[in-house]
Amino acid sequence: MTTAPPAPAAHDTAEAPSGQAARSRGTRRRGPGATPWLYLLPALAVLGGLLVYPIYQLGLISFLEYTQAQVSGGQPTTFQGLGNYRRLFADPQFRQVLLATVLFAAACVVSTLAVGCALAVLLTRIRALPRLALMLAALGAWATPAVTGSTVWVFLFDPDHGPVNRVLGLGDFSWTYGRYSAFALVLFEVVWCSFPFVMVTVYAGIRAVPSEVLEAAALDGASQWRIWRSVTAPMLRPILVVVTIQSIIWDFKVFTQIYVMTGGGGIAGQNLVLNVYAYQKAFASSEYSLGSAIGVVMLLILLAVTLGYLRLLRRQGEEL
């Protein structure tokens, strides 16, 4: 009579699945490896060539004595260390231009966000045909080159032939003569060519908000402003972060509008901003090292503002 083989021990049966689970966990831990980086390698190479190397050259020149004499080879290039930065921050005009740039950029950002968000809400309240007309008009303003738009705005506000002064009854008032009126004129043009990006982006975000949430808030008796402030805006916060950072970067480094509309910075440089000031130092005065130092300062300011803004939002518990 044959006997049945002995049953496997309990610990033997338990080791098999546990060993398979350990191998599967080890496989999961390894992850995709270097495959994603291989896909990103072409893009990283392009970014390295277009961003990293120019920034490196900008920083390098800012530490050198690099004027027209060094460019032409008449004098050797010498290392200045922080000498260019000390000269820059000791210049009272640079401090004045820096303050004017920060205030002007802040006014442009706030105005652009206010106009863009208001028109985005308006797009959700009007019918299809007016919505299409507004979208086409906004995209036309967005697609207009900065030089062309600035020239048109200068003509519109021209004291002799511009229609704006005639309609407002201002006579021969020159908008570009006074410092604050010139900055206001440039601000109008900057907002005009910048608000379409905010409007289209925020409008797309509003359309993605569930209609049930908005209807529930309306049934609870919330006003349109309260719905926007307490319901819509918190749900759009990631989008608002993107448009705010983009607006800060664009408005802080405005060049074309100031240069064209104020004739290179206004009377006696009263409307200079950092980008125009760097251009004058680098190309008008042939002090390329000082112009590069101004560019490095602008880069550091923008990085500090952007990282500080993102850190503040993370402290508030936002997922970006």
Question: How would you sum up this structure in a few lines?
Answer:
The protein is mainly α and 320 residues long. It is built from 15 helices and 2 strands.
Structure characterization notes:
With 320 residues, the protein is mostly helical. 74% of the residues lie in helices and 1% in strands. The protein has helices at residues 10-30, 35-62, 68-71, 83-90, 92-123, 128-143, 146-156, 163-168, 179-208, 211-219, 224-235, 237-252, 256-261, 274-284, 288-315, and strands at 64-65, 78-79. The longest helix has 32 residues, at 92-123. The termini are far apart. The model is unreliable at 9-16 (pLDDT under 50).
Write the layout of secondary structure elements.
Layout: H1 10-30, H2 35-62, E1 64-65, H3 68-71, E2 78-79, H4 83-90, H5 92-123, H6 128-143, H7 146-156, H8 163-168, H9 179-208, H10 211-219, H11 224-235, H12 237-252, H13 256-261, H14 274-284, H15 288-315
Antiparallel strand pairs: 1-2
Average residue pLDDT: 86
Decide which structural class fits the backbone: mainly alpha
What is the gyration radius calculated from CA atoms? 29 Å
Global outline? globular
Strand content: under 5%
Q: Which percent range fits the helix content?
A: over 70%
The number of E-state strands comes to: 2
Distance between the termini: 74 Å
Number of helices: 15
What is the N-to-C order of secondary-structure elements (H for helix, E for strand)? HHEHEHHHHHHHHHHHH
The low-confidence parts are: 9-16
Name the quaternary structure: single chain
Query: Largest beta sheet: what is the strand line-up?
Result: 1-2
Largest sheet: 2 strands, antiparallel
